[in-house]
Amino acid sequence: MTDAKAPKSEQTRTLILETALRLFQERGYDKTTMRAIAQEAGVSTGNAYYYFSSKEHLVQGFYDRIAAEHQAAVRPVLDKETDLQARLAGVLKAWLDIAAPYHEFAAQFFKNAADPESPLSPFSPESEHAREAAIDVHREVLAGSKSKVAPELVDILPELMWLSQMGLVLYWVFDRSDGRERSHRLAERGAHLTTRGVSLARFRVLRPLVLEVHELFTDFLPGMAQTATARKR
Amino acid sequence: MTDAKAPKSEQTRTLILETALRLFQERGYDKTTMRAIAQEAGVSTGNAYYYFSSKEHLVQGFYDRIAAEHQAAVRPVLDKETDLQARLAGVLKAWLDIAAPYHEFAAQFFKNAADPESPLSPFSPESEHAREAAIDVHREVLAGSKSKVAPELVDILPELMWLSQMGLVLYWVFDRSDGRERSHRLAERGAHLTTRGVSLARFRVLRPLVLEVHELFTDFLPGMAQTATARKR
């Protein structure tokens, strides 16, 4: 996947990242050292550290790549559909398709990422870049749909939609069905449920509950408050 | 904790269980064998297998014990309080207190239990006994409160309340705050949120959403459907 037209430094960066992902998959994340990654990629250890200052940074590089591929893959559905449920289901299923090659890696790597205090957690301050890109997709899912949304929920619903995507990711990590068929069905069902929730959030009596759910997540997950603050800047 | 007045077989069972928990904590769950547990407990390996046919069964024994201790510990709050939020917060905080000695064990053991297909998952068919006992507590939380509940939600809400308790357990596993102080605050906040949700579920327009959330969980978590079926028997 190394692009010959990209600048040399970009090519080296991609080479190191792809070598790391292959070694993580072959040897396990915990057992793979930066030195082994550099050696296998044919660069000096110092050079590898220049691009990624730790193994954790390599995983952030992986998250960023998945997020970028996902942003490209959702264009057809987001440019065409105006129905919220179809937009959301399309976005979730595009993610499952992009992540498919990494399923085995994700399962062995999960125990490192499940800890919210780990830099590898999707909720960590270190993951903010990839998280913001992923939440941006959900902002567009909502903004481009014909669903009406209360002004006080416009900023909050995309973060909750992203959280429900994290629920799908957790389910997918352990999904052993052929072609992750069960995860695809969960994506469809989740999109239906979320659309119903968004539709009910029109009712004034329900909005405080939505706000309280969101507040609970931002108060208890380390990186979420930071994301919420970044949104207000 | 071995009770001198209990029958001999009950004493042996308790001895094996407590030895296993200690070894899991000292050596890690994966590295502890049934043979080592038997040896350390001073019984034959055959005898250990008579009481627990696998390591997984030892963990079920652990779950059952926690559930039984919890059922006893919630008596004061459930006999006294009629306010739903106070009942629920009391029940959640009693669980945190009972589980406190096992926090270190829970963290290292988590990766085995997080997989919904594992017999150690709280959602597995194998965990049904402990899960039913835990859901029973939530049935009583709701039934003994002065909150009004729609008839079609009476069976469903306790299972959803138990699911939110599983969310708290997940948070607690990774909670490194002194005395798990953050988990205690999450228990309070979660009880407030759930009470608000139960109160809103009086509105007819919201009930289909609650039913759909519950249906999603029973369709996608292996043991939940079984629990739902058992409830109807």
UniProtKB/TrEMBL annotation, chains A, B:
Residues 10-70 form the HTH tetR-type domain. One of its GO terms (molecular function) is transcription cis-regulatory region binding. The keyword DNA-binding applies. It comes from the Bacteria. It holds the Pfam family TetR_C_23. InterPro entries: DNA-bd_HTH_TetR-type_CS, Homeodomain-like_sf, HTH-type_TetR-like_transc_reg, HTH_TetR, Tet_transcr_reg_TetR-rel_C_sf, TetR_C_23. This is TetR family transcriptional regulator. The lineage of its organism: Bacteria, Bacillati, Actinomycetota, Actinomycetes, Kitasatosporales.
